[in-house]
Design goal:
Elements: H1 2-6, H2 11-19, H3 27-37, E1 42-45, H4 52-63, E2 72-75, H5 79-92, E3 100-103, H6 109-116, E4 121-124, H7 126-134, E5 145-148, H8 151-156, H9 160-168, E6 175-180, H10 185-194, E7 199-201, E8 212-218, H11 224-234, E9 239-243, H12 247-259, E10 264-267, H13 273-284, E11 290-293, H14 295-298, E12 306-311, H15 318-325, E13 335-341, H16 346-355, E14 362-363
Parallel strand pairs: 1-6, 1-7, 2-4, 2-5, 3-4, 5-6, 8-13, 8-14, 9-11, 9-12, 10-11, 12-13
Helix pairs in contact: 3-4, 4-5, 7-9
The structure holds adenosine monophosphate (AMP).
Length: 432
């Protein structure tokens, strides 16, 4: 606790940290908290799972007074992150009794309007916050701290103009804290315009590679689903997250996992907010062992006990890979990231490895697994081969390898021998 105290954290937050059995500050906390307390604007590498909520929260909680209006605003790209941050700040400020209110879309606005009248700290997604501004149900004139969390993602999601409009409603004199995995030119321009001599904080690595094992299997497109089912059935008892690139694929995977006896639920941006929250709650309470999700829905989520992350689809954006695998091996626990790679993922996987230098993803020998039944949704039938590598309704057949793009592997290693009967894969490729 002494190390936390030395950073200048107030006693009532220290009490919470001691209850939570936190022993020492994380790197980002060590570097950021003194700057925040010193009144500096900060640009920080937003290490997912690195403890960044406390990194900005400790200073904010110390300097925000109860019952004097909304003094701190945290903008986040997604509703789930908004909920999570608000919950964490509520916990950290438990003894100071601050009121932390989450504000996001997809739920009725009326209750939020009432709660905003008593809020000390607000965590919000930009769209719904603008709604409140239009209705005059939020007063930003007392803001002392503005936090932009996952700023790069907010920009990617097109919230830049919304964020500007919100900033224009805040007082000129305030501290701005910006957390972002990457700083694009656009974000740098933004920082120059809206921040006051920001101090940049870097943390070494946001994946604890000593605790996180990363592997990949190279299979045919038509085998991906069966292998996933096998791995989920034979894996440990911990929680698993399965990532897909599209809502449609996520729906497909969920439906078929359930059809094959796996207790899985889907979570993506096309679902009602209430349902998304319910699924996440059930997952964190371990009533569901597997969630199938898209990047947006799972961004920044902190759920303890996630032991396996599966990339059913390899992400297009190399940063998403790091965010995905950061859902496991959190807070000192160990975890495994499993990439199920087929020809349709080759380009994305190569890109992930190229852009994340130093990432070690070892090839694993594909275990023996049986083929499972798959139901292809109606609308993908009759359009030739869909994303699941077959056009038939079920996949009892062994199917051919899906060489959709017809491209040969660039750095083709010798085709590996399959442990499922000595067959070799014409579609395999070596990733270095
Ligand atoms: P965050 O990056 O803020 O989402 O935090 C990730 C997880 O790490 C959360 O479950 C925090 O409660 C936890 N955490 C934050 N700081 C520490 C710390 N200094 N020691 C141990 N766990 C921490």
């Amino acid at each position: 606790m002494e190390k936390f105290r030395k950073l200048g954290i107030c006693e009532n937050v220290l009490k919470v940290l001691s209850n939570k059995k936190f022993t020492k500050p994380s790197e980002i906390q060590e570097k950021t908290i003194p700057l925040v307390l010193d009144g500096k604007d900060v640009i920080a590498g937003s290490a997912t799972g690195s403890g960044k909520t406390l990194a900005f929260g400790a200073g904010i909680i110390k300097k925000v007074a109860k019952g004097e209006g909304i003094q701190s605003l945290i903008l986040t790209p997604t509703r789930e992150l908004c909920e999570q941050i608000s919950e964490a700040l509520g916990e950290f400020s438990y003894y100071k009794k601050l009121t932390v209110t989450p504000v996001y879309g997809g739920v009725p606005i009326g209750q939020q309007m009432k709660k905003l009248a008593y809020a000390d700290i607000v965590a919000a997604t930009p769209g719904r916050l603008l709604d409140h501004l239009k209705r005059n149900s939020i007063d930003l004139s007392k803001i002392k701290f503005l936090v932009l969390d996952e700023a790069d993602r907010m920009w990617d999601m097109g919230f830049k103009d919304d964020v500007r409009k919100i900033i224009d409603k805040c007082p000129k004199k305030k501290q701005v804290l910006l957390f972002s995995a990457t700083i694009s030119r656009d974000l740098a321009n933004f920082a120059e315009k809206y921040m006051n001599n920001p101090v940049e904080v870097e943390v070494d690595n946001y994946v604890d590679t000593s605790k996180l094992k990363q592997i990949y299997y190279d299979v045919r497109d038509s085998e991906k689903f069966s292998l996933l089912t096998h791995l989920l059935k034979t894996g440990g008892n911990g929680l698993s997250m399965v990532f897909c690139n599209t809502r449609r694929n996520a729906d497909f995977v969920e439906k078929n996992l359930r059809g094959n006896g796996i207790n899985a639920r889907v979570i993506h941006g096309g679902m009602e907010q209430k349902k998304r929250i319910r699924v996440l709650k059930e997952f964190s309470e371990r009533k569901i062992q597997v969630i199938v999700c898209t990047d947006v829905a799972a961004r920044g989520l902190d759920i303890s006990g996630v032991e396996q992350v599966y990339n059913y689809d390899l992400p297009k954006d190399a940063r998403d890979y790091v965010h995905r695998i950061g859902r496991t091996a959190r807070a000192g626990e160990s975890g495994i990231a499993v990439n199920i790679v087929a020809s349709r993922d080759y380009d994305n996987f190569s890109n992930v490895l190229r852009k994340n230098e130093g990432l070690v993803v070892k090839k694993s020998e594909t275990p023996r697994f049986g083929r499972v039944r798959i139901e292809i949704p109606e609308r993908t039938q009759g359009r030739g081969r869909g994303v699941h590598g077959r056009s038939a309704r079920t996949s009892g057949d062994r199917g051919r390898s899906n060489q959709r793009n017809g491209r040969r592997p660039q750095r083709g290693g010798r085709a590996p021998t399959s442990s499922r009967g000595g067959r070799s894969h014409s579609s395999s490729r070596r990733f270095n």
